[in-house]
Amino acid sequence: MHAIGIDIGGTKIAGAVVSEGGEILLEQRVATDAGDSDAIIDAVVRMVERLSREYPVDAAGVAAPGFIDATQSTVYYTPNISWRNEPLRERLSARLGLSITIDNDANAAGWAEYRFGAGRASTDMTMLTIGTGVGGAIVTQGQLFRGGFGAGAELGHLRVVPDGLPCGCGARGCIEQYGSGRALLRMANEIADAGLIGHNLAEARAANGGQLDGTIVAALIEDHDPGALAALRQLGSWLGQACASIGAVLDPQRFVFGGGVAIAGELLLEPIREGYLANLPARGFHPEPEFLTAELVNDAGVVGAADLARVHRAG
Ligand SMILES: [Zn+2]
Q1: Which of 31, 59, 112, 165 has a CB 3.0–4.6 Å from the CB of 303, allowing a cystine?
Q2: d(Cα 255, Cα 258) in Å, to the nearest integer?
Q3: How far apart are the CA of 170 and the centre of ligand 1, in A?
């Protein structure tokens, strides 16, 4: 049976009817006002009603940012929307009369990648999503890992530098400060300031009113500009180091990288592999995991949320 997946973001809600094979049959998007949490619930209800009028479904999964409890029913906390201990599943299922599940958005995207993308045909996959921050998802022995309270797999807050850069989470030295899109911009700015190979970065920054942004750095990476590539290598090296620590605990067969930076493909994966091997405990005595970029990109949230709803209903 088809299922509906809903992905609630800070600025929009995406919803889709998804087949058992992970194919999107119908998709919709609406803008959200993150300040009005009741309006978001109304918008989700309307979207599920509209989508289920077109296709028969027996479950709907909702992906939202933040901490979701282990029973997939309560949103403990969302960073942009004012949900605090919000019984979202109960509120939605009371209005929709459908089996509803709630999951963290990074978990939903990771599950989609595991089922239908770069993780398929493996049993153990770890995904890191490189956006403004660093998101994480863990699949172990074919199961999505949520942790005892539901807030596990926060891989962005793995500490890689004792007393390192301050992180938004309140700690210091988290990989999010060294392996995120924001970190890439910081590294690119430092290289621009240092001159020499940073010449093109500095020139592009000046032409853009003194600011580098993701689009500019991505374009320079695509042109194989030495400064932009150096920044990407630094980023990849940090991510590889984090993967060595993650690997020591979880031993995944595959590490998958999503988010905007992953478009760089091999240019990103190569320094990740090197950083991993240089920091691996007991190197040489262990099969090497695969390092891959994500395949589903924009649709992962809705596809994963729908499939998790189906798995939950079946389970
Ligand atoms: Zn942190």
Answers
A1: 112
A2: 10
A3: 6
Measure the CA–CA gap between 166 and 12, rounded to whole angstroms. 29
User: What's the pTM value of the predicted model, to 2 decimals?
Assistant: 0.93
Number of helices followed by number of strands (H, E) in the chain: 10, 13
Pairing of strands 75-77, 84-86: antiparallel
The stretches of 140-291 forming alpha helices (DSSP H) are: 176-179, 181-194, 199-207, 214-222, 226-250, 266-279
In this structure, which residues have their CB less than 5 angstroms from ion ligand 1? 157, 167, 169, 171, 174
| Centre of ligand 1 from the C-alpha of residue 173, in Å | 7
- CA atoms of 155 and 92, how far apart (whole Å): 29
For residues 143 and 136, what is the distance between their CA atoms, to the nearest angstrom? 15
175 Cα: distance to centroid of ligand 1 (angstroms): 7
- Is the torsion defined by CA of 114, 120, 123, 127 positive or negative? negative
| Ligand 1 centroid from CA 172, angstroms | 6
pLDDT average per 10 residues of sequence, the chain (315 residues): 92 94 96 85 95 94 92 87 90 93 94 97 96 94 93 94 94 97 97 94 97 96 97 98 95 95 95 94 80 92 96 84
Q: What is the dihedral of CA 233, 238, 244, 250, to 10 degrees?
A: -110
